[in-house]
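Here is one chain, start to finish.
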Amino acid sequence: MKAGMMIAGGFLGAFGQLTGMGAAIYVIYDWNEVEPYTWMIQAFYMMVGSFYYLGTKSDFSYTEAYPYLYNRYLKSVANKQGVDFEEVEVFEEYVDRLEDQFRVLGIDIAAEISKLALEEEKGQKKE
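Its structure:
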């Protein structure tokens, strides 16, 4: 969610720049007065893009920025909560192996889980 908000904020900033520069060039001032500011803004965006490249070793694109920002936020939240991603990977591999063993035995895991859920639900209604 936070990554989406950051991307939306970037789009909002770009839209604000577009409307502000358009109004400054065509309504309020003249191109000759606004041109130096456009050069400064362009240089700023070039520096932001350069720092993004230095930090991520990839060019900025919206399809790559969202996963990068999402994963960065996920790691920071996980570190605050004390989650170890290596343990999560080991656990997921263990679950995958168990699912494979159940498939070999011919047991439909989804059906068994839904049966257990129905039994638990019936037990809660009786109480």
